[in-house]
Design a protein that fits this description.
Blueprint (H helix, E strand, L loop, with lengths): L2 E10 L4 E3 H5 L6 H8 L3 E3 L7 H16 L8 E5 L10 H8 L7 E4 L5 H14 L5 E8 L12 H4 L5 E10 L6 E9 L7 E2 L25 E2 L1 H23 L8 E4 L4 H10 L11 H4 L6 H11 L9 E8 L3 E8 L2
Parallel strand pairs: 4-5, 4-6, 11-12
Antiparallel strand pairs: 1-7, 2-3, 6-7, 8-13, 9-10, 12-13
Helix pairs in contact: 3-4, 7-8
Bound molecules: coenzyme A (COA).
The site of coenzyme A (COA) has 21 residues, from α2, α6 and α7.
């Protein structure tokens, strides 16, 4: 059976840097509060008309070049985002057209912070079943155009950043143990209300009810931050252990853990709970904030560029929890 092998990665963030001090000027917050509670120092927000597919396109060009592929080589595109460019069609189709393609299948994944994990598991299943051979998996988000930038929304708004990353994955025939060793995915829709944006809502007779003003809180993401925090700290070690058991390896064999970058404190707590050496867990939330579906592949791209991971035989574990709720863990071994 073919193994799903990463051939190239790329990332892109928009040029408009927004520091915590910039946020102090538009809402009642402080650099100290944001750094202490989340670890975030800055993030990038779009400036002008830019969709998730535009950011994804820039990241994809780099990933394709690193893989030595042309867009025409692709036989499947997966785009993970909670912030599609428009209501429909999905950002995967928009990206496909930007890549100059006109028949390559394109699938959108709406799994928020675990979009990359669900996307990687899906790519692996497509490769192992023989349905696809060269896949472009993209995580891309434009949060900034949908955030409440007044003091009312400060708990959520300071956290999120815009960005994208792309990974080229190829089905490779090899007897070596390599590729995706295990994927474990979970969801609990009973907790959908813990982190959501309610409007516009297709379930309503009118999606944007005229009696509700456009600055109503329901048009913005709302989050029960402490509930999500507690859930993450409890569920991530469990799902990591499930994936280690499935892959029949131990935590000591993992060279690097790349968790979703939602909050530095969640990831530090995870590291302490697992008794991990600090060098074995990846943090870059300081620079980008939470870029949701893009956060894990951005961290992967950086870790590979820095030489922290990527040698033959290296094993990386991706994990995360977010809206849905959804959570999961995927273990990957470099060929
Ligand atoms: C959002 C989060 C950083 C908030 O941290 P917290 O320690 O739980 O803080 P609280 O929500 O209890 O708020 C504490 C105080 O800070 C205030 N506050 C909230 N946001 C603030 C901000 N940006 N700046 C300054 N003060 C802020 C609150 O109003 C509250 O004030 P009060 O004590 O006077 O009522 C944290 O809960 C978190 O990261 N949760 C998980 C997020 C996550 O993983 N999401 C899923 C993936 S997207």
């Amino acid at each position: 059976m073919k193994k799903s092998i990463i051939k190239g990665t790329g990332m892109f963030v928009p040029p408009n840097l927004v520091t915590n001090h910039d946020l102090e000027k538009i809402m009642d917050t402080s650099d100290e509060w944001i750094k202490q509670r989340t670890g975030i120092e800055q993030r990038y927000w779009i400036d002008g008309v830019t969709g998730s597919s535009d950011l994804g396109f820039e990241a994809s060009k780099i990933a394709l070049e690193n893989a030595g592929w042309k867009p025409e080589d692709l036989d499947f595109i997966i785009f993970a985002t909670l912030s599609p460019d428009i209501m429909f069609p999905g950002s995967g189709c928009l990206l496909q057209a930007k890549l100059g393609l006109n028949k390559t299948p394109a699938l959108d994944i709406r799994q928020q912070c675990t979009g990359f994990l669900y996307g990687l598991a899906t790519a692996d299943a497509y490769i192992k079943s023989g349905l696809a051979h060269k896949i472009l998996l993209v995580g891309g988000e434009v949060h900034s155009s949908g955030l409440d930038k007044s003091t009312r929304g400060r708990d959520v708004t300071v956290i999120f950043g815009d960005g994208a990353a792309a990974v080229c994955i190829e089905g490779v025939e090899t007897k070596k143990e390599a590729g995706v060793l295990a994927s474990v995915l979970h969801a609990d829709g009973n907790l959908a209300g813990a982190l959501m944006t309610e409007l516009p809502a297709s379930r309503l007779p009118v999606r944007m009810p005229p009696e509700i003003p456009f600055d109503d809180v329901r048009y913005y993401p709302v989050m029960d931050g402490s509930a999500i925090f507690k859930k993450a700290v409890r569920m991530l070690p469990k799902v990591i252990n499930e994936s280690l058991e499935k892959a029949k390896i131990t935590l000591e064999q993992i060279d690097l853990i790349i968790p979703h970058q939602a909050n530095m404190r969640i990831n530090q707590a995870l590291g302490q709970f697992l008794k991990l050496d600090e060098t074995k867990i990846c943090h870059n939330i300081q620079k980008y904030g939470n870029t949701t579906a893009a956060s894990i592949p951005i961290a992967l791209h950086e870790a590979m560029e820095q030489g922290r991971i990527g040698k033959s035989g290296d094993i990386v574990l991706f994990t995360g929890l977010g809206a849905g709720l959804t959570w999961g863990s995927v273990i990957y071994k470099f060929l």
